[in-house]
Automatic annotation (TrEMBL):
<dbReference type="Pfam" id="PF00005">
    <property type="entry name" value="ABC_tran"/>
</dbReference>
<keyword id="KW-0067">ATP-binding</keyword>
<feature type="domain" description="ABC transporter">
    <location>
        <begin position="2"/>
        <end position="226"/>
    </location>
</feature>
<dbReference type="InterPro" id="IPR003439">
    <property type="entry name" value="ABC_transporter-like_ATP-bd"/>
</dbReference>
<dbReference type="GO" id="GO:0016887">
    <property type="term" value="F:ATP hydrolysis activity"/>
</dbReference>
<keyword id="KW-0813">Transport</keyword>
<protein>
    <submittedName>
        <fullName>Methionine ABC transporter ATP-binding protein</fullName>
    </submittedName>
</protein>
<dbReference type="InterPro" id="IPR017911">
    <property type="entry name" value="MacB-like_ATP-bd"/>
</dbReference>
<dbReference type="GO" id="GO:0005524">
    <property type="term" value="F:ATP binding"/>
</dbReference>
<dbReference type="InterPro" id="IPR015854">
    <property type="entry name" value="ABC_transpr_LolD-like"/>
</dbReference>
<dbReference type="InterPro" id="IPR003593">
    <property type="entry name" value="AAA+_ATPase"/>
</dbReference>
<dbReference type="InterPro" id="IPR027417">
    <property type="entry name" value="P-loop_NTPase"/>
</dbReference>
<keyword id="KW-0547">Nucleotide-binding</keyword>
<dbReference type="GO" id="GO:0005886">
    <property type="term" value="C:plasma membrane"/>
</dbReference>
<dbReference type="GO" id="GO:0022857">
    <property type="term" value="F:transmembrane transporter activity"/>
</dbReference>
């Protein structure tokens, strides 16, 4: 599903040391991976390589057997829209739209995801199903998203990532604003959706108490020490 070979990444070409130096990383389909590391260790930088937002300075990043460096910027944008659901740290929701509208937007740039999402019922019904499955009550589905609590907005961001069952879900610190009990129950809901959609899940956090919930843990510091 994901394979990295001799990857380095420098933000600026004259940086003395690369931000990332990962000799090898392999993640199989369906794994639920907890990726942790101290602040500034490069977690978000790595996620941007996996999502094809950036490309490595050297080495190769393969996602679903595609070498992302060999795709043009436009091809990478299409690849991301078709195959990757991204839950951003700050959610990136459109504040003047409702939860249902924010979620359906998740497949506006992908025919494949739109088709998959509207297979058994309408796109709006699928958005409502996902929002409810991720813990947002139906009376909140058509409110203005800016009026929702942080925890409710987080559920909208997760539903938008899952619509159309993308192969890979990337979650960048999505639970940092929640208390422990809410964090664990939200992660359980994420796992349920990932299993239903048969999606691989990469979840980034520096909260190591969440580790035991996942079937694989990767330390970014150890990954970089394989050299
Ligand atoms: N757009 C950018 N331009 C230049 N340097 C950057 C950029 N984004 C991140 N960096 C640098 O790359 C390094 C890794 O940052 P990154 O955000 O990937 O770490 P992180 O592990 O996700 O941190 P946190 O847990 O605090 O979010 C840091 O030194 C940071 O200053």
């Amino acid at each position: 599903m994901i394979s990295l070979k001799n990857v380095t990444f420098k933000w600026h070409k004259d940086d003395a040391k690369p931000t990332l130096n990962i000799p090898h990383l392999s993640i199989s389909k369906g794994e639920h991976v907890f990726l942790h590391g101290p602040s500034g260790s490069g977690k978000s930088t790595l996620l941007a390589l996996l999502a094809g937002i950036n490309t490595p300075t050297s080495g190769e990043v393969y996602i679903l057997n595609n070498n992302l460096s060999q795709l043009s910027n436009t091809q990478r944008d299409i690849f991301r829209a078709e195959n990757i659901g991204y839950i951003f740290q700050n959610f990136n929701l459109l504040p003047y739209l409702t939860p249902i509208e924010n979620v359906t937007l998740g497949c506006d740039f992908s025919k494949k995801r739109k088709q998959l999402a509207s297979q058994s019922h309408s796109l709006e019904n699928e958005a409502a199903r996902l929002l409810s499955a991720l813990g947002l009550h139906s009376q909140d589905h058509n409110k203005n998203v800016a009026t929702l609590s942080i925890g409710q907005q987080q559920r909208v961001a997760a539903a938008r990532a899952f619509i159309g069952s993308p192969e890979l879900i990337i979650a960048d610190e999505p639970t940092s604003a929640l208390d422990t009990a809410n964090r664990e129950s939200f992660i359980t809901l994420l796992f349920n959706q990932a299993e239903q959609a048969n999606s691989t899940l990469i979840f980034v956090s520096h909260d190591e108490t969440l580790k035991p919930l996942f079937n694989r843990t990767i330390s970014l510091v150890s990954l970089q020490e394989q050299i």
